[in-house]
Design goal:
Blueprint: E1 6-8, E2 11-15, H1 16-22, H2 27-42, E3 50-51, E4 54-55, E5 65-71, E6 77-83, H3 85-93, H4 97-120, H5 124-153, H6 162-174, H7 184-206, H8 211-234
Antiparallel strand pairs: 1-2, 2-6, 3-4, 5-6
């Protein structure tokens, strides 16, 4: 299980870009709707509800939506929102039909998984696995450093990029979004993939193979493991 939820200050959030995909809606349209909801929640006369002879406390929009930002493909800063579980409920209640049902099922599943992960994180076993993954990552970084020098010796002018290239490959194969918020099964999978990548690089260097071939072989092996894992889950 590798949860899509971002955890900040022990509160789980979806990125509005994720939610837009989940509900099949343009992100800018979802942003427009969220900002309309926030306006209602933060307008003094609208953000309170009257119950007989009393008025409820003003609703806090931050309990639902937290403004954030990201950089687009051009490197330009764009607005997005972090959406809490209550925010997801808010959006789901505005939806009708199958899309609303499917979105509710997806966000409820993700938040339940997040809660399970938070419980695992309190155990000694989870912490030991996470610490081991940090050690294994350090060993891999040392191996990649050796590979970079090896590639430079073979004439590569952009060898330094292989730090990013190898880690992106591993994160893609393991579908990793946040190693600090994933379960023990997924951490074990990450450890296995890191070990396989490290072994493949060492073997390639020891065999004096071209650096591009070493990377290609490593990529192919990891993708085979990924396919095996998918087949195992399906069966």
């Amino acid at each position: 299980m590798n949860n899509l939820i971002l955890v900040k200050n022990n509160i789980g959030y979806f990125d509005s870009r994720q939610v837009a995909k989940m509900i099949d809606k343009r992100h800018d349209h979802l942003i427009r709707d969220i900002e309309k909801y926030i306006k209602v929640l933060t307008t003094p006369k609208l953000g309170t509800l009257k119950y007989k002879n009393s008025t409820s406390p003003k609703l806090d929009a931050l309990n639902f939506f937290v403004k954030s930002s990201y950089k687009d493909s051009k490197g330009e800063k764009r607005t997005c929102y972090l959406i809490s579980k209550m925010g997801c409920e808010f959006i789901a209640n505005k939806m009708t039909g199958d899309k609303g049902i499917l979105f509710t099922a997806m966000y409820v599943k993700q938040f339940n998984e997040m809660e399970q992960i938070q419980m695992q994180k309190k155990t000694k076993q989870w912490q030991e696995l996470r610490d081991l993954s940090k050690v294994k990552t350090k060993f891999l970084n040392d191996t990649i450093k050796e590979f970079i020098e090896y590639a430079k010796a073979q004439g590569s002018t952009h060898a330094q990029n292989y730090y990013t290239i190898f880690h992106k490959l591993i994160n893609s194969i393991t579908a990793t979004y946040d190693r600090n918020n994933t379960d023990m099964e997924h951490l074990n999978n990450i450890l296995f993939i890191i070990s396989m990548a490290d072994k493949c690089i060492h073997e390639g260097i020891a065999s004096q193979r071209p650096y591009k071939e070493i990377y290609s072989t490593c990529k192919d092996r990891l993708k085979i493991i990924q396919i095996w894992g998918a087949l195992a889950v399906a069966s």
